Request: fold
Amino acid sequence: IGDTAFCQWLIQTATTHQKPILVDPKGNCYKKYAGATLIKPNFQEFQEALGCKVENDLDISRLGFELKRQLEIDTLLITRSEKGMVMLNQDTREDIHTKVQDVIDVSGAGDTVIATLAWAYSNDVSIHLAAIYANLAAGIVVSKLGTADINYQELKDVVLKQDVLSKTHKEL
Reply:
């Protein structure tokens, strides 16, 4: 069984059982991820999947919504390092900004994002709030040396410090 066939079987099986599929994509062929709940490329991976350079925010939205439509996914979440994240849902774009901080090492930040998304979403947190948590978690990890981990208390402390639950994504 090929890579695409396996991914499609997995997505179909999860869909049948009403389970979400969150993907941290690899490679530039995203057809294998069609029908997933969420795909989370970083900005470079997003450009590679499109096969072109994305010049501005308008292009991110236009090309991102087109990719989302082609793949029939619910959410496209593009991580952009210090620029935060762009989340495309239905017909809406949400920018999730990062707090400027000392960046020691970006190793593992993307893995932290997808892991935090999966943890939060599986605990009935909205995808919007899960993305905010993931952004904050990545901010903690990049302030550490090497491929670092994060624990629940660290994330909880940052969420409470940022007063995330009473703010909108635009205020973060």
